[in-house]
UniProtKB/TrEMBL annotation, chain A:
<feature type="transmembrane region" description="Helical">
    <location>
        <begin position="181"/>
        <end position="200"/>
    </location>
</feature>
<feature type="transmembrane region" description="Helical">
    <location>
        <begin position="65"/>
        <end position="88"/>
    </location>
</feature>
<keyword id="KW-0812">Transmembrane</keyword>
<keyword id="KW-0813">Transport</keyword>
<keyword id="KW-0472">Membrane</keyword>
<dbReference type="InterPro" id="IPR051784">
    <property type="entry name" value="Nod_factor_ABC_transporter"/>
</dbReference>
<dbReference type="Pfam" id="PF01061">
    <property type="entry name" value="ABC2_membrane"/>
</dbReference>
<keyword id="KW-1003">Cell membrane</keyword>
<comment type="similarity">
    <text>Belongs to the ABC-2 integral membrane protein family.</text>
</comment>
UniProtKB/TrEMBL annotation, chain B:
<keyword id="KW-0547">Nucleotide-binding</keyword>
<dbReference type="InterPro" id="IPR003593">
    <property type="entry name" value="AAA+_ATPase"/>
</dbReference>
<keyword id="KW-0046">Antibiotic resistance</keyword>
<protein>
    <submittedName>
        <fullName>ABC transporter</fullName>
    </submittedName>
</protein>
<dbReference type="InterPro" id="IPR050763">
    <property type="entry name" value="ABC_transporter_ATP-binding"/>
</dbReference>
<dbReference type="InterPro" id="IPR027417">
    <property type="entry name" value="P-loop_NTPase"/>
</dbReference>
<dbReference type="InterPro" id="IPR003439">
    <property type="entry name" value="ABC_transporter-like_ATP-bd"/>
</dbReference>
<comment type="similarity">
    <text>Belongs to the ABC transporter superfamily.</text>
</comment>
<dbReference type="InterPro" id="IPR017871">
    <property type="entry name" value="ABC_transporter-like_CS"/>
</dbReference>
Length: 273, 283
């Protein structure tokens, strides 16, 4: 370019990203249905599960301690994967993405905004879930720093994988109207085969093997190592918590999701050409 | 970059979607500081052409220079000098007018004052309104506000006044004249011929993917030089019509034939709309 070219945006990259995140959170918090359903859904689910299975899973550990792991994981899946895979096609249809593309906003800022929103919502939603479960259903919170640390990295890696896959999956739906129909079954099937609603090891072996391809199973397994006594590790399909494998699979999904995002993301609709 | 260099220079632009040729070799030059209108029926290649200039679409052939750069490789600095008002509105349902404009201001290195811009587009009393409560015309004004918040050197307006009432349209024209007076180059696509006539320094008519005319609105619609239609009743009572660029000579000739008054004589000149419709009809 030439001498007339102006200096780049005065706001630094960090400020740009945070601003976009703030905008996303503002939009989310003003959409009452989204707030109520996203925040309350996992808590309602734990109420239902804890009421149906109010006994022990064995060894003096109640069922809440098992199902909380599925509910946390499913909550992160819904915040990261489902909401983005439905929301982004809607924004694409409304022309929001095309309009942003016409500004000097760097592309990554849009994604940063989504990621910040997802992390904040995921954090609050998980906290609500833990509070309800502890107060009303006798959930015992992790008892050691090491377990909290595992909780942290499994949560962060898990929600990152879900978010990246959600953004990548947003290119699958051709229109905003078809997005929920495309996304919901994927999430629901993953939940059934990954041990969210049932004890994982009670599932048929082939189903366990299919589930092991996808991140949700590994998020649940990692979280079980946080909320269940170590004696339960022997009952896992691999005979241990396999935390290394958890990190590896979730990390791999982050990479796959990121590559798909970069290569397939569309700022305009199909009819825009 | 000198001021004499055109804002937009296009030559031999081609774009096809499969077998459907949308733009078939367009040459175009928009000078700095002028208001340039692009007219044409739906499907004529108007939007495709404009979106190539805006950097949204890739061309198949030809060369394009917008503000001295190829929009296909638009960078941040280039984007900050170009304002775009798209045909469809991209809404931010749960935000207020002020929040959206302020947010967009943050994308630009040297933005205008958001409150001033909001007033300028006539949304001063809607600053705190959620955007989903705005009427169609008000949403369009918000679109314009977002298009000009970065103080663009070049502004694209794609059918900006669709859904405006006559009063709002006049106000909008005043805004465009203001921007133009301040030196902004404006490229406008519109279906309203009176809008092109009111605003444009020059206009181009595009049909079937090709430019069929580039001129000033006056020259395009000029009744003095456009062919006139002379009609009269012949001796056997049928109406004869003849198109001519020399009506006076024709009438003199007919009058000689009749040896005096010509029965049912009319001479009509086409309006700008007639000229335009003839042009695109003849493709």
């Amino acid at each position: 370019m030439t001498a007339l070219t102006q200096t780049p945006a005065t706001a630094g990259p960090l400020a740009l990203g945070l601003r976009q995140g703030g905008l996303e959170i503002k939009q989310f918090s003003r959409s009452r249905e989204a707030v109520v359903f996203t925040m309350a859904f996992p808590a309602i689910m734990i109420v239902i599960f804890a009421s149906i299975f109010d006994g022990e899973i064995g060894g003096g550990v109640n069922f809440t301690q098992y199902f909380i792991t599925g509910m946390i994981a499913t909550g992160l899946l819904s915040v990261g994967f489902q909401s983005l895979a439905i929301q982004i096609p809607a924004e694409r249809d409304r022309g929001v993405l095309k309009r942003l593309r016409g500004t000097p906003m760097p592309q990554w800022v849009y994604f940063a905004g989504k990621v910040i929103m997802v992390f904040v919502v995921g954090l609050v939603e998980t906290a609500v879930l833990l509070a309800v479960s502890t107060l009303f259903f006798g959930l015992e919170l992790p008892g050691s720093g090491a377990r909290w640390l595992t909780f942290l990295w499994v949560g962060v890696l898990g929600i990152s994988a879900c978010t990246l896959c959600g953004i990548a999956f947003s290119s699958v739906a051709r229109t905003a109207r078809s997005a929920p129909a495309v996304v919901t079954p994927v999430a629901l099937i993953l939940q059934f085969i990954s041990g969210v609603f049932f004890v994982f090891t009670n599932l048929p072996t082939w189903m366990q093997q299919v589930a092991a391809i996808f991140p949700l199973k590994w998020m649940c397994q990692g979280l079980r190592s946080v909320f269940l006594p170590d004696s339960f590790a022997a009952q896992e399909p691999g005979g241990s918590w396999e935390l290394g494998k958890v990190a590896l699979v979730l990390g791999a999904w982050c990479v796959i999701g990121l590559i798909l995002c970069i290569t397939t993301f569309r700022w305009t609709t199909k009819r825009d050409g | 970059m000198t001021q004499e260099e055109p804002a937009i220079a296009v030559s031999g632009l081609r774009k096809a979607y499969g077998d459907n040729v949308a733009v078939a070799g367009v040459d175009l030059e928009v000078r700095r500081g002028e208001v340039f209108a692009l007219l044409g029926p739906n499907g004529a290649g108007k939007t495709t052409t404009v979106e190539i200039l805006e950097g949204y679409r890739h061309r198949d052939g030809g060369s394009v220079s917008v503000l001295g750069a190829d929009p296909q490789h638009a960078d941040k600095a280039w984007r900050s000098r170009v304002g775009i008002v798209l045909q469809g509105t991209g809404e931010f349902d749960d935000l207020t007018v002020s929040e959206v404009v302020r947010h967009f201001a943050g994308f630009y290195p040297n933005p205008d004052d958001p409150a001033t811009v909001i007033r300028r587009v006539g949304l001063g009393d809607k600053e705190r309104a959620r955007t989903h409560t705005l009427s169609g015309g008000q949403k369009r004004r918000l679109d314009v506000a977002l298009g000009i918040i970065g103080r663009p050197e070049l502004l694209f307006l794609d059918e900006p006044t669709t859904g405006f009432d006559p009063e709002a349209r006049r106000e909008f024209w005043d805004l465009i004249r203001d921007l133009s007076a301040a030196g902004t180059t404006i490229v406008l696509t519109t279906h309203y011929l009176e809008e092109a006539e009111a605003l444009a320094d020059r206009l181009a008519v595009i049909a079937g993917g090709s430019l069929i005319a580039v001129s000033t609105p006056q020259a395009l619609g000029d009744r003095q030089s456009a062919p006139a239609t002379v009609s009269w009743r012949t001796a056997d009572g049928t109406v004869e019509r003849k198109e001519t660029s020399t009506p006076t000579a024709l009438i003199a000739e007919i009058a000689t034939g009749f040896g005096g008054e010509v029965p049912g004589l009319t001479v009509t000149r086409p309006t700008l709309e007639d000229v335009y419709l003839t042009m695109i009809g003849h493709r």
